[in-house]
Design goal:
- By secondary structure, the protein is α+β, with helices and mostly antiparallel strands.
- It contains 3 helices and 10 strands, in the order ααβαβββββββββ.
- Strands 1, 2, 3, 4, 5, 6, 7, 8, 9 and 10 form a 10-stranded mixed β-sheet that branches.
- The chain is globular and about 60 Å long.
Length: about 150
């Protein structure tokens, strides 16, 4: 590879970035279309069961006077599988119930995925903060469960 090829690749990358920025300003993707696309991405695993959000501390809990920076508690349910998740500024802490090992992916959009592993007690954690919409995809044995998308 010579310097001309490297220079051309760099120029192509800069041009692509510039075109993406121009398209975002001049013809932005409608917010509703983005939401639909993100929701559809969660379903790319057609055998997956959808875990519905059954508890959200922002909506369902009674606020404690004087408490600040409290973690957000979420519970998702799909049949007999329940996923409890605590969302903080530092990351996620959760548990799969009934307790069982599981492979877990934190989905943040079509290209953002982080892989975690739940231990034999179903516990999992990540120290990477979640921003924007996210969902969890759990693989337990032969079963796949995907949570509803929610905002961090």
């Amino acid at each position: 590879m010579n310097d001309d090829t490297t220079h051309e690749d760099y120029r192509d990358t800069l041009l692509e970035e510039e075109l993406r920025r121009a398209a975002a300003i001049l013809d932005p993707v409608p917010a509703e279309l983005t939401r639909i696309a993100v929701d559809a991405y969660a379903l790319h695993d057609l055998d997956a069961r959808i875990a519905e959000l059954t508890f959200d501390s922002v909506m369902d809990a009674i606020p404690v006077r004087g408490a600040t920076d409290v973690p957000r508690m979420l519970t998702f349910t799909a049949g007999e599988v329940t996923v409890d998740v605590e969302v903080t500024g530092e990351g996620l802490l959760g548990q799969v119930l009934p307790p069982q090992p599981a492979g877990i992916e934190v989905l943040g959009g079509p290209q953002q995925t982080r892989s975690l592993t739940a231990d034999t007690m179903g516990r999992f954690t990540t120290d990477t903060p979640v921003t924007g919409p996210f969902a969890l995809r759990l693989r337990t044995g032969g079963e796949v469960v995907v949570t509803e998308w929610t905002r961090a």
